[in-house]
Amino acid sequence: xxxxxxxxQAVLGDPVWAAKLTEEDxxxxxxxxxxxxxxxxxxxLDMDARLDLAAA
Length: 56
Fold this sequence. Notes:
Blueprint: H1 2-13, H2 15-20, H3 23-28
């Protein structure tokens, strides 16, 4: 959820995108989307590498 929240913050921090969103759009925003999350199986985490959130 942290990454989802950071991505939403990046979009909302951009004045161009923020101006395009209506009040209805803002009410529909949530960091709780699950399309790419695998709730089953194995997860291999590289704790020595950091995500480049600035590029997102």
